[in-house]
Structures are given as C-alpha cells and as structure tokens.
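Bump. Still looking for DNA alkylation repair enzyme structure tokens.
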Amino acid sequence: MTLGPDASAAEIVSAVTSMGDAEKAASARRFFKTGPGEYGEGDEFVGVRVPDLRKMSRTLRGLPAPVIVDLLASGIHEVRHLALFTMTHNFTARGSDREAWVQVYRDAVRAGRVNNWDLVDCSAADILGAWLVAAEDHGELLDWAASDDLWRRRVGIIGTYAFIRARRPDALSDVAPLVIGDRRDLVQKAFGWMLRETGERIDIEILTRYLDVHAPELGRTALSYAVEKFTPEDRAHYRSLK
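Sorry for the wait, here they are.
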C-alpha cells in the first residue's frame, strides 16, 4: 500500500515498521552507537534503508505539520528520519509557508528529536540553513553552534552548508571560533567537512589561508577531514603544524 499526504501518523509508523529488517536494525544500532554511554544511547531502529525512506517521503509530500510533529515524537529512528525528509519536501514546495516549517524544525531540535548525525545532516542545511540564506542572516547559526548540546552544535555547523553552497564562506568563518576547540568526534567531523566543502565549492585559497593560521588549533579529526582532497605532500605539511 502506498501512503499519501492524507495518511495518519499511526498508519505511517505501521508502514515503516512493516518494512523493517531485524538484521539491518541490529547493524544500525551498532553503527549509530546506541549502547550505554554512547551518543545514540537508547535509540530504537527497525532496520529500514535510507533510500526506501527517501522514496516513501516523496509520496508523503504535503503531509500536514501536526502529523509530522507526531512522527518526530516517535521513538523509532527511521520514523523521525522519514519525517525530516518529508518536512524538507514541504519546506521547498512552491507556495510553502517556509517560516512555519522552520519553526517546526527548531522546535524538533530543541525537543531532542533531531538527535543523531544523520538526522541533523539531512535537514539542518536544507531547512534552517536555506531559510537563513534567503534572509541573508546567519546569526541564528551562531546561537546553535554556541550550545554545549552535541546535536544543537552540529545543527549550527551543518547549517553553514547552505551558505557554502551559495558561495558564502562568512557563516562558517563566524561559527569556526565557537567549535574549533570541541574535541567531540561528531563535532570534529562536521567542522572538518564544512572546511573541506569551503575549499571545494568556493575557493581553495580560503581553506589554505585558514589552515595556515589555525591548523595547530584543529583537532586531528577535523584537520584530516579538511585536507582529505589535498595532495599527500600538502596533507603532511598541515599535519606537521600541529
């Protein structure tokens, strides 16, 4: 059965659950670190592939905000992932009340519903970041990046991707001092990734000038991500500055 935008949250949760695979769920629980003391502690997976969630989200375009809010409250990771994919479709639709969708997104992040790196990465730039690019104001990203909460901070970092795609390095430049000292792996990876994207999408000299000054301050993971596309000689040079 193919569900459409008139589906209830209960029907959608049932459909996602029916698509699950126990072996994939067990693998996902390990991959997304759901054990005691790990960053995804206690998260529930049913074992649905991301391409299948994306496909399903396309049939749910136009799903009302209250239903999406209910889906975001689900304890099942894939249901929340599906809700974010669907929200992105709704946000980008012609005639969409984008401001309302951004507020739904903000509320979800604050409520702890966007609580793993894949959930942040599929939504922060495409919803919040895109809204702020249109507003020509990245100040809100600084507030998110300044948070000590891992997922809020990652939203602030990944949100800069929308500005990078618009060939604007200023958002990441302003976020950088807020996150450069954070040695948590998922902050390091996000920051290094955005640095690398700045070099690839805007200007490699922006990246190299930044690294010439700040490479000694970067964590090893962030630096490794930032210089991933460099020549072996250039990678070695910047690593030697630490």
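The mean pLDDT is 97.

Edit: fixed formatting.
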